[in-house]
């Protein structure tokens, strides 16, 4: 959808799985690492569905009703369990999470979200939608999402499995801030409503506070802070 003239490295933990360097004739920029982690500490969703609200702000690929007409669901929108807040397509997953089906999802700020699962395309256009520096992916029970590309870069992210476990994954990196596309394969066991599903949301990780510079400048700053604290102690006691 767009050409990104950046240097990107994709890592899982401490292991680099793929990297690509693209030279730019306009400017040289440092690498922007994107990593996959199980640690969601500090993650905040861009939007939530509200207190007591059911559903997902993003993609919810559900096992669905498992009726004879193949009413097994793929939904995208603001609240994927509340009528009028999402668009839905029907996709017959099958009796188990395999074989896997082609998958692609694009999330753009001020535009919305579009997903293509096995040729079934569902989108939700909303000019208020935003992206962050992180993507949250949940695989519930018998659901698998294998990603081969994140934002145009080759990766090998095999998420979820065919057991009854629930997993949460987080992909994070500054290069996601202008929007992103996930490409790969998906499989969900059909039926049982939301028991088996893949959920995808956008969000941000809290940025750590920079450490003070080492050496004399840090000591000078500390002295200024102590002096100000002493000067303001009388005022604080009056207001406290």
Defining traits:
globular, 16 strands, six-stranded antiparallel sheet, disordered N terminus, 47% strand, disordered C terminus, mainly beta, 240 residues
Outline the structure in words.
With 240 residues, the chain is mostly beta strands. The chain is globular and about 45 Å long. The strands form 2 sheets. Strands 1, 2, 3, 4, 5, 6, 7, 11, 14 and 16 form a 10-stranded mixed β-sheet that branches. Strands 10-9-8-15-12-13 form a 6-stranded antiparallel β-sheet, with no helix packed on it. It has one helix spanning 216-239; strands at 7-12, 15-21, 32-37, 43-45, 58-64, 73-77, 86-90, 101-108, 112-117, 120-125, 134-140, 143-150, 153-161, 166-172, 180-188, 193-205. The chain starts with 6 loop residues before the first strand and ends with a helix. The model is unreliable at 1-31 and 209-240 (pLDDT under 50). It has 1 helix and 16 strands.
Tell me the distance between the termini: 57 Å
- Helical run tally: 1
What would you report as the Rg, rounded to the nearest angstrom?
A: 22 Å
Question: How many DSSP E strands?
Answer: 16
Order of helices and strands: EEEEEEEEEEEEEEEEH
Output the structural class: mainly beta
Average pLDDT metric:
75
Shape verdict: globular
The major β-sheet equals:
10 strands, mixed
Percent helix, as a range, is 10-25%
Question: Uncertain spans, ≥5 residues at pLDDT below 50?
Answer: 1-31, 209-240
Strand fraction equals: over 45%
* Oligomer kind: single chain
